Amino acid sequence: MLEIESLSKRFGGLTAVNAVSASFARGTINAIIGPNGAGKTTFFNLVSGTIRPTSGRVLFDGRDVTGLRADQAARLGMARTFQTTALFDTATVLDNLIVGHRLRTRSTLVDVILGTNRLRDEERICREKARAALDFVGLSHLEARVAGDISQEERKRVAFALALSTDPTLLLLDEPAGGVNPEETDGLAQLIRKMAKSGLTVCLIEHKMDMIMNLADRILVLNYGEKIAEGTPAEIRANPAVIEAYLGTEHA
Ligand SMILES: Nc1ncnc2c1ncn2[C@@H]1O[C@H](COP(=O)(O)OP(=O)(O)OP(=O)(O)O)[C@@H](O)[C@H]1O
After folding, report:
1. Which residue puts its alpha carbon closest to atom 1 of ligand 1?
2. Cross-strand partners of 223
3. How far is CA 14 from the centre of its chain?
4. Could you tell me the distance, in angstroms and rounded to a whole number, from the CA of residue 17 to the centre of ligand 1?
5. ipTM for the complex shown
6. Relative orientation angle of helices 152-164 and 182-197, to the nearest 10 degrees
7. Which residue of 43, 135, 150, 185 has the fewest CB atoms within a 10 Å radius of its CB?
């Protein structure tokens, strides 16, 4: 459902992503791993439309989406989360989802700020979608809680709910388990599995190798912007180039 064709991004003299090709099948969980500075975030930004590639193409369900703006990509069914979840800490969890949904699906803030009729008509649907997303991530009980009062793991779940509220078919998760403890990491992994089971294609960046090895169907390994390996967790674990560049011998 997602085809990456020889995607490259240069920042001045530095090639952050170098001719990377990949293919992600519907309903699968795909991890992108690699050392710091390998180009993982840049790769994500290229796919989700945050930045334009220097060359290469992104095909989403057969459609060329290269260089689309993030809000256009969201409307087509791509959603992403970020390493840190920016929430309005003084607003409720539900209001964060309602506002977040609008920011993701509209190109300007004007409608939101002016509160046009069209938006008021959409309010009910938007609220229903937000509640359904909260229910899916297991946070219905927190809908009226002020976002500043929830835990890091709950913030991660809110980030998932924010992404889900736009009805995506592809979900890009940037360090979904960053900064949470091992038990909470297991809970988040279960939630990611549930998302894939529901038909979503998941693509994630994560440094927690135990989680990745148990969760991912396929792993893509970047090093200095280049794809050095791609395969199942077992194949990646046994790949000498990956062990040398990233995993180290203790993981082998
Ligand atoms: N906007 C930018 N301008 C210039 N250089 C950049 C820019 N964004 C990223 N880079 C460089 O591109 C390279 C890849 O960075 P990127 O953030 O994609 O790596 P990463 O694998 O996500 O790293 P990390 O695991 O630390 O998040 C790095 O050398 C980084 O300094």
Report:
1. 11
2. 226
3. 25
4. 9
5. 0.95
6. 10
7. 135
Going by alpha carbons, the residue nearest to atom 28 of ligand 1 is 37
Please give the chain's pLDDT, 252 residues, in tens: 899 999 999 999 999 999 999 999 999 999 999 999 999 999 999 998 888 999 999 999 999 999 888 888 888 999 988 888 888 999 999 999 988 766 655 545 666 666 666 666 677 788 888 999 999 999 999 999 999 999 999 999 999 999 998 889 999 999 999 989 999 999 999 999 999 999 999 999 999 999 999 999 999 999 999 999 999 999 999 999 898 888 775 544
Atom of ligand 1 nearest to the CA of 43: 18
11 Cα: distance to centroid of ligand 1 (angstroms): 9
The finding on whether 36 has its CB within 6 A of some atom of ligand 1 is yes
Is the Cβ–Cβ distance between 87 and 96 less than 8 Å?
A: yes
φ/ψ bin of 222: left (φ > 0), alpha (ψ from -120 to 50), beta (otherwise): beta
Q: Which of 91, 47, 89, 87 is nearest to 70 (CA)?
A: 47
Residue 204 forms beta bridges with which residues?
Answer: 31, 173
Characterise 34 by phi-psi region: left (phi > 0), alpha (psi -120 to 50), beta (else). Answer: left
Ligand 1 pocket, residue 40 CB under 6 Å: yes
CATH 3.40.190.290 fits 1-77+169-252, yes or no: no
Residue located nearest, by CA, to atom 6 of ligand 1: 11
The pTM assigned to this predicted structure is 0.88
Ranges of CATH 3.40.50.300 domains, the chain: 1-77+169-252
